[in-house]
Fold each of these.
Amino acid sequence: MIEQLSVALLGANGRMGAEAVKAIDAAADLTLVAALGRNDSLESLVSSGAQIVVDLTVPESTEANVRFAVEHGMHAVVGTTGWDAGRLARLEELLADRPGVGVLIAPNFALGSVLASAFAAKASKYFESVEIIELHHPDKVDAPSGTAVRTAQLISAERTAAGVPSSPDATTTELEGARGSDVEGVRVHSVRLSGLVAHQEVLLGGPGEQLTIRHDSFDRASFMPGVLLGIRNVAAHPGLTVGLDGYLDLGL
Ligand SMILES: NC(=O)C1=CN([C@@H]2O[C@H](COP(=O)(O)OP(=O)(O)OC[C@H]3O[C@@H](n4cnc5c(N)ncnc54)[C@H](O)[C@@H]3O)[C@@H](O)[C@H]2O)C=CC1
Ligand SMILES: O=C(O)C1=N[C@H](C(=O)O)C[C@H](O)C1
């Protein structure tokens, strides 16, 4: 008899949610006890007996959803974007009162993407210049992507710790937006194009050379091994974990 984990899914009718329903249903150790859409009450999570709540909703809903889960002693695995520093700080404060509860905020569940961001961060201190191009489907509501923000933060931390100066840039006149957005000192450019799913390039430049670290999600199936890994591990990681790399042994 395989021990079962009871899982509730928020955003079950969305692009990611529909894929996650299939992945959870196909997992022998997971039971989907609730699948909620936009107009469903969070109260039904309590009666469902869910141990773990997976949030794949929209940036404006995710904080309240996760708060509800934590306040009711449920672990949360969160793929939704929009977790800025203020939201993370409020969540950490809440978790301090719930010592056994774990929350994973995963900007990207694709293992290749997590690796690409980690490799890019490690490489970034060896290059003068670094910029990020993220490319997504045109139905995406937020820009830049959560993955690009996270990658820029990892890069910025590595470069700051190594004392690497800002990327050189002589721009003095600029049509607004032409140089992308500045995320912790790293320029991020967002492309929205029909036919795409989720893609990112980190461009690293030095005298006479360029290294490009690119990851492509061609299908949302790419995110599912990471979603399942998050569900299976979140209870063993109490407190807040940002990034699926927190559950992996990247050895970097
Ligand atoms: N971490 C990762 O690997 C990935 C993260 N994402 C992120 O996940 C989120 C969802 O992406 P998509 O599925 O493409 O969006 P989507 O718009 O297709 O789906 C979101 C769904 O959530 C529903 N919803 C909104 N508020 C809700 C609430 N309070 N309770 C329950 N359902 C609610 C909407 O009605 C919609 O059906 C976005 O923030 C996206 O950036 C997307 C792909 C991968
Ligand atoms: O909206 C999407 O599609 C995606 N959102 C996440 C992000 O903003 O990084 C993850 C992935 O890029 C797909």
Amino acid sequence: MMLHPELLRAARDARRPLIIATALLTGVAATWLVQAALLALSLSAIARGANGELPPLLGGVLAVVLLRARLGWWQRRAAQRAGALVRVRLRDRLLVQLGRLGDAHLTSARAGAVRATLVDGVEGVDAYVSRYLPQLVLTCALPPLLLVAVALTEPYALLGLVPALLLALLGPRCWDRLLERRGREHWDTYEGLGADYLEALQGMPTLRAAGAVPRTRERLERRSAALHRATVAKLRISLVDTGLTDLAVQGGTVAAALLACASATSGRTEATGTYLLLLLASECFRPVRDLAREWHAGYLGVSAADGIGALLRAEPAVRDTGSRPALSRTAPAIRFEGVDFGYGRGGGRDTGPDRGHDSSHGALALEGVSFTAEAGRTTAIVGPSGAGKSTLLALLTRRCEPGRGQVTVAGAEVAAYTLAALRAGIAVVSQEVSLFHATVAENLRLARPDADDGELVRAARAAGVHDEIAALPDGYATVLGERGATLSGGQRQRLALARALLSDAPVLVLDEATSAVDERREARITRELLDAAHGRTCLVVAHRLDAVRHADRIVVLDAGRVEAVGTHDELLRSGGTYAALVAAGHTGEGELVA
Ligand SMILES: Nc1ncnc2c1ncn2[C@@H]1O[C@H](COP(=O)(O)OP(=O)(O)OP(=O)(O)O)[C@@H](O)[C@H]1O
């Protein structure tokens, strides 16, 4: 009898169908009792030789059986409705929460573990709520009433029934803690195995290339064996639990039968009373037996409940406390003013759990960063690897908060906007492209569902991918494989660029968005893109400096600080990091750049 607060909270989503399911279950239990009474009367009639009484009694039994079948069908339907409601609402809440937590959470949690919680965990909660809970209510309510009925027939029978019922209900509670622990271990192992499998499948090309497939297979086999052990350990406890319940049920029924016989031979009960006593004693244990069965169905829900609760209560890295509903449609200026940021805990502004920290906790990723990306212009950010370019973009889209200083868009601090408004106003294309198993056109229209075909083509042309789309078997109606697997890396990136161009966002951020495009095309695509994005404020981080030399302004970052700001020619003239980076690029060391 395990009650988990998280599961009870989930049950509130389906209060009405659950009440109906429980009421119908009570109706089913009532039919067993009526059947027991009718059978007792029938047996008594047979014993007395009153065969004439049998037809109506047996007809009654038949009617009760039919009624039970009907009630059982309704009950299952109500329970399924309750379960479906719980599943849908819980998954909705989890998905909303995952959206709130953002990608920062998904970098710390493993995708396979989140999948297990969302799919298998929620299925377990359904079984717990729709099957176990109604049965639990019935088990708590019915046996005490039946004991009263038994006491009225033959009080001595309680001597066998009460201890057996207490043992059946309370005995397994001794194992609850152990069972809970084993359940959690089992769930953790299950989640871990799911995450390992997903990771191995997604990383199969890399594993193959590295010749690591056999090693990975061995690791997965070890994980599978660990899951097997965890399952057996859990089952062992569970079987002790079930065994104890069965023992108490069988023992109690036998004790009740013996006491019923004793009271019949001593003349304390008539034939009808004796038969009734025997049948009622058996009915006392029916809910207990059914509860044990439903427990096994709902057990997964109890194991997953902690993980579900933790996910629902997790705090996002940044809080969505802003109230500005949208970025203006005109291109805004973006300003970084004295921004410090460090990864890790402590320090910084206290607006959420993942703040930039003070320098006492280690090196800052950004320190005193100040510059302006002017409205409607293109600003490039360059610097060696680890200089802080991606961190800067993460602060702009509020995936983290500055420890000191501020980032403003159109004069308002980024925290003043709602997260949805801020992110809708900034179209980001990064190195990692998300494409979905859908047509090319559907993938493009994610950014703007109402875009017409002409707009799709214009965006695709600007991103340098139109000709390749047109050459696909069904052109824009070609279905892409999962994650765009049927395209090359460069094609995927250019599709993502076309998608960003389609969006109405007044700010366009290209974070190494052309890294998979060959060098010859990169500069041309970047130029055409920026032409197409004309009128928007563009921030560009690019690996190869040829791609950003035409930017209106170039901000040079080095070790988290702004080293210089200027045009390509100005920066070349002044020497420094930029000139060194360009020189390195020209001597074939371009990969060190940006
Ligand atoms: N999630 C993180 N946790 C801890 N440190 C991080 C994290 N992300 C980045 N860093 C550190 O912050 C610093 C700046 O990283 P950032 O990714 O912003 O650099 P970058 O200029 O974009 O580098 P690259 O050109 O290689 O992508 C680096 O020292 C990096 O190791």
